Amino acid sequence: MGKKIILTGKTGYIAKALAGWLNARGLQTELVSLRAGVPEGLEADVIVHAAALVHKDEREFSEQDYMRVNCALTEELARRCTVRQFIFLSTMAVYGLEGKVGKPLIVDRTTPVNPRTFYGKSKLAAEQALRAALPPETKLAVIRPPMVYGPDCPGNYARLKKLAAWLPVFPYVDNSRSVLHINNLCALILAIIQDQAEGMFFPQDSEPCNTSLLFKKLAQEQGRKVLMPRLPAPLFRVPLSAANKLFGNLVYDKNISSFY
Predict the structure, then answer these.
(1) How far apart are CA 213 and CA 195, in angstroms?
(2) What is the pLDDT of residues 209-230, one digit of tens each?
(3) pTM of this prediction?
(4) Could you tell me how far CA 156 lies from the centroid of its own chain?
(5) Given 75, 124, 129, 199, which residue has the most CB atoms within 10 angstroms?
């Protein structure tokens, strides 16, 4: 396509994976670090803004830390760059939903945003600031992915994988959670670039994830067998928050998800 594509988050998992994905398909990318601020004279056909404060213990970072990196820096980038298309990596966390054990919970276009974490609040604030910061002719695409997973990824997936390396027993609970493989996220971003698309995107894998079956798969990949007793959902009502995060149902309505 001959486009100049800049990816922020030079050391981040998504930016590095995306660079490899696009380069393998003949697109030239430039990884840019924003640790020292927004570079002068930043120009591109496309900017994919993946740099963020994420996967950190919120007891060690203040809400101001998250707002500074995820919102203020995003707004500064938008105001100082010259770009035709700006693709922003937001998060499903803007809805503030943990999930519900034993009950379906589906996010659609009518679901209100109500972030509960510093991360979710800062990402929503960045979404709201971007349109005003960018020139009206710049195409803005905002992606709200669920948990992204793949080889060597950080975050909740990595924590579950570490747990699967030693825990001999894990309960089976029938649940469904939206997840997104890194390759599917990369394919979506490529399609957005190719189509010069704009608007909101709510991607997920074609099939939801069952937490118990994912744990079993991660254990098997490490040469381990796990006992998986089937336990009724009511046993997970206390502590409710922890149970909902691990075994709750939380999916995007398929009608709003984009598949590429």
Answers:
(1) 36
(2) 999 999 999 999 999 999 999 8
(3) 0.93
(4) 11
(5) 124
